[in-house]
Amino acid sequence: MPESDTAPAWLVLPTYNEAENVEAFVEAARAKLPASAQVLIVDDGSPDGTGEVAERLAERHDNVSVLHRQVKEGLGPAYIAGFRRALAAGAGLVLEMDSDFSHDPAYLPRLLEAARRADVVLGSRYVAGGGVENWGLCRRALSRGGSWYARTVLGVPVRDLTGGFKCFRRELLERLVREGFETAGFGFQVEVTYRSLRSGATVREVPIRFRDREAGESKMSSRIVIEALWRVVELRLRAARFQTPTVRPARMRSTAF
Fold it and tell me: What is the CATH number of the domain that holds 43?
């Protein structure tokens, strides 16, 4: 039996200036996770006191811990640091999600259940049953256009390549972390899914409703969007340059609950 079927799940939450959200979010997530699950908050030296709030949560709950990073290096390095900590502690499944309630903790059981039959599960806004709430027309167009662009350039069937709500089985995540990542910003989400597909992993999309944050400030900017667009091209060029016969076709499933 694979280790991921018996070892506890870990939820990795990268934070930067989320003092208004992190306490309520962690409490909501704990209520939806199995009793054996662990929550790891990865804080990049938030000046608003997020790290201190996280420490109080860790003192209150045995299954909450904090990884403090002194320098803000981007989303990718924060996740990788959290993944390494979770894997070293024996995690069987590793979840990632935003800590601002744009990803609803109510969907956590759905992703964990789907991970029984997939190497990586994506909480998807763009499969049947999924969607977004409280977004204006421009933001909707940017998100859908970004997913379409990445899907077209990379030539993969995933509907929501830019989403950040995922659940990995240990065996896949260990391999990805060992091989390393190239992207630090929001393009990291595209890279991790693309590399999973290229490795032949079973990828499953399950529908979620994504809603805009109600507290705190968005980290999205035009610079981040431009970086992500270029990183997609880099991923495709690198894949073409280093294509090998060992790459197996990925298996995709989209599921509506």
Answer: 3.90.550.10
**Strand 120-124, strand 251-254: pairing:** unpaired
Pairing of strands 9-15, 38-43: parallel
Answer for the pair 187, 232: CB distance below 8 angstroms, yes or no: yes
Tokens of 153: 């350039």
SS3 of residue 49 by DSSP? coil
Work out how many domains the chain is built from and give that number: 1
Q: Which of 113, 111, 109 is nearest to 121 (CA)?
A: 111
Q: pTM of this prediction?
A: 0.86
Under a CB-based contact definition with an 8 Å cutoff, are residues 85 and 157 in contact?
no
SS3 3: helix
Q: 83-133 pLDDT, tens per residue?
A: 999 999 999 999 999 999 999 999 999 999 999 999 999 999 999 999 998
C-beta of residue 108 within 8 angstroms of C-beta of residue 115:
no
